[in-house]
Amino acid sequence: MQNTDATVVERELEMKLVVSPECSVPVPARLTYRTDDPYAIHIAFHTGSEYPVHWTFARELLVEGVFRPCGHGDVRIWPTKVDGRSVILMALSSPDGDALLEAPSAQVSTWLERTLRAVPPGTETDRLGIDDGLAALLAATVVVDELWLRDPWVTDESAEDDR
Distance from CA of residue 80 to its chain's centroid? Predict the structure, then answer.
């Protein structure tokens, strides 16, 4: 059954845009998780432009990326150490360009734990109400089936039978 109470788990943090091994630029970011969209996480990067840059990808990808390299294509995530600090690196690719971002592991992990308490892994589909939607769809199909059972074409034979 669908839970209609949506909870939002957010975290503001400063990430770093890695320009080169010697240079990085601070980028304020907001991590957002919504229980009514239980499979996804959303990140808004405030790059100094008028509008933030938004990325959405699977929560499971970030959970795995905290522990080991994962992902392919547009989003790749892996843990590492930089100057003795534990960080998570995110390589993001789009038609507009590529970015390598560094986030503090402890802050991301703490936020992820909050999302996992809000919607434990394996219970995401309960939030979507798929069973209720499917039941409603199938109930509507029964009514439609009754229409299909009727012969829409009056033939000469059936017209004679009516007389």
Answer: 24
